[in-house]
UniProtKB/TrEMBL annotation:
Residue stretches making up the AMP-dependent synthetase/ligase domain: 9-364
Family under the similarity heading: Belongs to the ATP-dependent AMP-binding enzyme family.
Protein name: Malonyl-CoA/methylmalonyl-CoA synthetase
Domain AMP-binding enzyme C-terminal, residue spans: 415-491
Gene Ontology biological-process entries: fatty acid metabolic process
PROSITE patterns cross-referenced by the UniProt entry: AMP_BINDING
Signal peptide: none
A molecular function GO annotation: medium-chain fatty acid-CoA ligase activity
Lineage per the UniProt record: Bacteria, Pseudomonadati, Pseudomonadota, Gammaproteobacteria, Oceanospirillales
Annotated Pfam families: AMP-binding, AMP-binding_C
């Protein structure tokens, strides 16, 4: 049996070639037939660049329908799609390329000349470009390429994608997702959320992460639905387009920003059947305000890069604020004791562990790390803390991992602390998340100066980090303190730091509009 995820989409390409699959606010429109034709030509380009099944194709491009066609071409060819955040800077990109050793790196057109150095440095075999208007060398090649119609015959465990997630050690890990992982999860979600070919999704998420690529696009492709691609979140544009749509998926910031628009009311959402939130905790208050304004109860679900989606509030039953619902079909969730690993009864808080067809194949070239995050019976330790209540709803109550989630993006403090610690005049630093009204958590740093040294000021640290870290990872505020708070074991007390700086964004934002 061929487990290629592409087969799950293929019937719609053939059955409804004239139906729109993707459109854009500027009026570009791509039918299922056109998307298939272009992705088959792109598969031809991959063949001409000698991309073989299992080879990585690193794609760091702006959001466009053509990027999805390239994703489809990779699936079809059995190549491993490796999307990268366009915000990553030089040193970050070099790490990903040297770790993944891709056969092909695709970058925005304006970076192409500079990116050739990756080829010269031997990090990749080919460099091509893809712009957001269907421009770039890749599409130029596609115009002349022979379409490939063969669909690579793959095992269930063969890789469809590698997504890098930062780590608590500061070193990013490539999460390996198989065709079967992605296929089973999108089927489970499509069913749980009652997706049909009649749905139209408003897509305003980035397409280099699980949420925007796998949850959103794979579901649409699985049921033969359609979607509008917005380049980024623009609330007024979302509201303009809402009368044509049935579903929105977003991170909590989507909903807090929508609530700020006076245009959000019952009439504005009249055609919508479902609002989904995930990637970060949705405040019960946002849930409630959204229900009051629109009559819609946001459906919150829980997932992560390594596992795809694990749980979801019910479509038909009660969607309970502050919870992430029940395990999806094919997924199991249990709560265990942090020390002993023993399963805990309902109502008790512990580590959230998951098992199922959705759970990834491990970290790219990190067998030790992979082993240490799985139990012997196949459960994956998520690093989230939670409890299952008497009615079976999962509550995510915190994190065991040192992680900040800013606007749905994960930021691992270690990576930033290491860079700050290298600066002259710095003895040590700590990075943590502080409640932020727009982003959920704001990345914040404290710096301890070296004895007798002049500590670098906030602006100079920020200017050094600007070239070395993607924008969303950069601390919004940096404070100088005399010593880090530590417990008797010497561990930095980030909870105390979070308390000490608890209102820096909330109080400031009450009288200023921006931080
Ligand atoms: C943008 N900026 C951010 C930021 N996003 N800073 C911190 N955190 C973020 N999330 C920076 C910008 O570069 C800009 O910097 C400044 O902040 C203001 O930008 P903005 O215009 O307000 O940002 P905007 O484009 O509106 O983006 C905010 C956002 C976006 C929340 C809409 O970040 C977003 O779409 N997030 C979704 C991330 C996501 O898809 N997560 C899912 C991961 S998968 P400057 O210097 O230019 O002013 C996963 C698994 C699962 O987690 O369960 O789903
Ligand atoms: P990522 O590694 O970027 O895929 O982020 C996954 C992490 O996001 C999870 O481990 C959780 O900590 C968090 N997360 C995702 N969805 C939710 C949610 N609905 N509520 C709380 N946390 C969430």
């Amino acid at each position: 049996m061929n487990h290629n995820l592409f087969l799950q989409f293929e019937a719609h390409f053939r059955a409804t070639p004239d139906k729109t699959l993707i459109d854009t606010p500027e009026g570009r429109r791509y039918s299922y037939g056109e998307v298939l034709a272009t992705s088959q030509r792109l598969a031809g380009v991959l063949q001409s660049l000698d991309v073989q099944p299992g080879d990585r194709v690193a794609v760091q491009v702006g959001k466009s329908p053509e990027a999805i066609m390239l994703y489809l071409a990779c699936l079809q060819a059995g190549a491993v799609y490796l999307p990268l955040n366009t915000g990553y800077t030089g040193a970050e990109i070099e790490y990903f390329l040297s770790d993944a050793a891709p056969q092909l790196y695709v970058c925005p057109t304006e970076w192409e000349a500079d990116a050739k150095r990756f080829y010269q440095e031997g990090l990749v075999v080919h460099v091509e470009s893809l712009g957001t208007d269907g421009d770039g060398s890749l599409m130029e090649r596609a115009a002349f390429a022979e379409p490939v119609t063969d669909i690579a015959c793959l095992e269930a465990s063969d890789l469809a994608a590698i997504l890098y997630t930062s780590g608590t050690t500061g070193r990013s890990k490539g999460a390996m997702l198989s065709h079967a992982n992605l296929a089973s999860n999108s089927r489970a979600l499509a069913e749980a959320w009652r997706f049909t070919a009649g749905d139209h999704l408003l897509h305003a998420l980035p397409i280099f992460h699980t949420h925007g690529l796998f949850v959103a696009c794979n579901i649409v492709l699985t049921v033969g639905a359609s979607m509008t691609f917005l380049p980024k979140l623009d609330v007024e544009q979302l509201l303009d387009l809402m009368p044509r749509a049935t579903v929105l998926m977003g991170v909590p910031t989507f909903y807090t920003r929508l609530l700020q628009s006076p245009r959000l009311n019952r009439d504005a959402v009249a055609s919508m059947r479902l609002f989904v939130s995930g990637s970060a905790p949705l405040m019960a208050e946002t849930h409630e305000q959204f229900r009051e304004r629109t009559g819609h109860v946001i459906l919150e679900r829980y997932g992560m890069t390594e596992t795809n989606m694990n749980t979801s509030n019910p479509y038909d039953g009660e969607r309970r604020p502050g919870t992430v619902g029940f395990p999806l079909p094919g997924s199991e969730v249990r709560i265990t004791d942090r020390e002993s690993g023993a399963e805990l009864p309902r109502g008790e808080t512990g580590l959230v562990e998951v098992r199922g067809d959705n759970v990834f194949q491990g970290y790219w070239q990190m067998p030790e790390k992979t082993r240490s995050e799985f139990r012997d019976d196949g459960f994956f330790i998520t690093g989230d803390l939670g409890l299952i209540d008497d009615d079976g709803y999962l509550h995510i109550v915190g994190r065991d991992k040192d992680l900040v989630i800013s606007g749905g993006y994960n930021v691992y403090p270690k990576e930033i602390e290491q860079l700050i610690d290298e600066l002259p005049g710095v003895a040590e630093s700590a990075v943590f998340g502080v409640e932020h009204p727009d982003l959920g958590e704001g990345v914040t740093a404290v710096v301890v100066p070296r004895e007798g040294a002049e500590p670098p000021d906030e602006a100079s640290i920020q200017s050094v980090l600007r070239d070395r870290l993607a924008r969303y990872k950069q601390p919004k505020r940096i404070f100088t303190i005399e010593a880090l708070p530590r417990n008797v074991m010497g561990k930095v007390q980030k909870n105390q730091l979070r308390n000490d700086y608890a209102d820096i964004y909330t109080v400031k934002e009450a009288d200023e509009t921006a931080v």
